Amino acid sequence: MNKEMNAEIISVGSELLLGQIADTNAQWISQQLAHLGINVYFHHTVGDNYSRLKDVMKLANNRSNLVFVTGGLGPTEDDLTREAGADVLNQQLETNQQVLAKIQTFFELRDIPMTENNQKQALVLKEGEVFPNNEGMAPGMFVEFNQTGWIFLPGVPREMKSIFLESIVPFMREYYPVNEQIVSRVLKFIGIGESILEDRIFDLMEAQTNPTIAPLAGEGEVTLRLTAKAKTNEEALTAISSLQEQLMMRIGDYYYGKDDESLQQKILEILKENSYTLASAESLTGGRFIDQFISVPGASAVIAGSVVSYQTQAKENVLHIPKSLIEEKGTVSEQCAREMAEQVQKQMQSVISISFTGNAGPNASEGKPVGSVYIGLKIGNQDTVVKAFQFSGSRENIRNRTVKKGMELLFNTLKDVLQK
């Protein structure tokens, strides 16, 4: 069989609809199918309801030629996937003796009584192919109905991934060979809004065919996903690189990394390469800025430390901000941000220091509206730079945007300093 495959993923479980757990299975399966050159056109989430589950399966069978179903294969009464699948796909269920023996052995080795409902996990589609579950009980299954291939997998991510990698991938390559591979690369930009970015590359987006360009807005940054289809991985990467060159000519000044690279990782790389150390003095961010760096392994080589000076007294007693300055200018001020950056640089003996002060709400403070933020930055013996910002949104949003803006300011300043 050699044709373009259009896949759909059905995630089963009321806990997904209730928001109790995130549906990471669909995301992961989509990534794996892209590597196999298979398009995924639909993600569908349905609760543990027999009627609704059947409706979703019938819809998938009419519009996709490959359907993955995860979840609902367990031993409890609300695990209904195999029963609904048998009904919709005109199949009978039978007990797989090999799977049943494995389940029985599991309980015997642990000296735990096996309840009758656990036998349910040994039920399989009679005409289907069974894939062993080396991480759990319920196996994976494949059956074809009306020219649509159906693959059933457990909902536990560890079990699902094990079956997929060990059995589904080789099965797919043999049963559904494809002529193309799908490859993606994500480019990340900071300091440019989504609308401005799109305006600068509008003609490229309008003319896109293969590779394609998809803008994705994030908190304080913008990403572009470039996707190419080609016969080989190398051909797809060549096409993506060519398009990336065109994009960089227009918006390269705002680029900081690709794929899984984070802004804090890129900043840490610059700090390490130049033997710079970094310290922060944080008020409204409460240590959130420096924590982003400490979360990265190896950060201790360049992160000197941080002072969280939330109350006015801490600014005076720990950072030694003059009381007269605070009384005259206030803590939410350009002058206070400058003094905080300079004082923490001295105390931590760091090359670079950054400070954050402002009002995240919920009420105005010192005559400054909610969202007023000042960020101070000092590099070596250079004059301290203080930038003022006015953010909107919730308290949490203001704090997150402040951290992101601080990273943007630090990253761009370091680039400018090193380019001179």
CATH architecture of the largest domain: 3-Layer(aba) Sandwich
Shape: elongated
Low-confidence stretches: none
Q: What order do the strands of the largest sheet run in, or round the barrel if closed?
A: 2-1-3-8-7-6
Number of strands: 17
Q: SS-based structural class?
A: alpha/beta
Domain MoaB/Mog: 8-175
Pfam families: CinA, CinA_KH, MoCF_biosynth
Protein name: Putative competence-damage inducible protein
Family: Belongs to the CinA family.
Descriptive overview:
The structure is a single chain. By secondary structure, the protein is α/β, with parallel strands linked by helices. It folds into three domains: 6-175, 3-Layer(aba) Sandwich (Molybdenum Cofactor Biosythetic Enzyme, Chain A), CATH 3.40.980.10; 181-258, Alpha-Beta Plaits (2-Layer Sandwich), CATH 3.30.70.2860; 263-419, CinA-like (Maf protein, Alpha-Beta Complex). 41% of the residues lie in helices and 25% in strands. It has 15 helices and 17 strands. The chain is elongated, with a radius of gyration of 28 Å. The termini are far apart.
